[in-house]
Amino acid sequence: MLQSFRIVLIPQCSCCGTAVTGDDSKELLVTERFLAPDLQKRLTAAGWEISPGDRKVNRGPTDPIGGDSLRCPACVAQAKRAADRFRARLAAPRVKTVDMTDRLGEGWKLVQRVGDADTKTWLVEYKGSVRGLVRRYKRVDGTWSTGWEALLAGEAGFVRHDATAAGSWSDRSSFLWSSRDLAAWGIAHQPSFHAPNPAWAGRSKRRK
Ligand SMILES: [Zn+2]
């Protein structure tokens, strides 16, 4: 039996909510979260970015998980500028390099750019490409913790990588590592939460 109502969707930018419009410049109405091929073609030509959804997880028009994901031209341009700025900052001249082959493996280095020493920050590089960053944690009151943060390099910025149980600075903090090199190890190997510390780090943990 047919329903007396059907659900209508308006495709929009997943960042800013700008709606997709039709030829009449009114908001476009569709009935499912997967865009028709000709509409995809038109949007791509107009500078929209479409990340294809997964039809296997599609559970109807109200399912927020499956379905295509869209970004409008303005948000695409903004993301590209942010990525360019991020890369430019990463490419700043190096003033100090520590070879980490013994602890992290062949090709791994810790490097500091101008100014990084002041913020107790090290880039974690693998064969010349930045994989992440580790830094002493600065508390809200401006004092330095002895714990270290590990941040993975993404496309346009860094995202925090939590400490393992064995490598954490204290049992009460989920994100601080107990040493710089353990934090760098977290970037290099992205160990699971229950992974044991590497042999060089020992088993003991500072109690706070
Ligand atoms: Zn947008």
Overview of this protein structure:
The chain has 208 residues and is α+β, with helices and mostly antiparallel strands. It folds into 2 domains: 7-75, no CATH class; 89-201, no CATH class. It has 4 helices and 8 strands, in the order αββαβαβββββα. The strands form 2 sheets. It has a 6-stranded antiparallel sheet with strand order 3-4-5-6-7-8. A hairpin with a 5-residue loop joins β6 and β7. The radius of gyration is 23 Å and the shape is elongated. The model has no long low-confidence stretch (mean pLDDT 91). Zinc ion is lined by residues 13, 15-16, 18, 71-72, 74-75.
Quick overview:
This protein is α+β, with helices and mostly antiparallel strands. It is built from four helices and eight strands; from the N terminus they run H-E-E-H-E-H-E-E-E-E-E-H.
Q: How do the helices and strands line up, and which of them pair or pack?
A:
Layout: H1 37-45, E1 49-51, E2 69-71, H2 73-90, E3 94-99, H3 101-104, E4 108-113, E5 121-126, E6 129-138, E7 144-153, E8 158-160, H4 180-189
Antiparallel strand pairs: 1-2, 3-4, 4-5, 5-6, 6-7, 7-8
Bound molecules: zinc ion.
Zinc ion (ZN) binds next to helix 2.
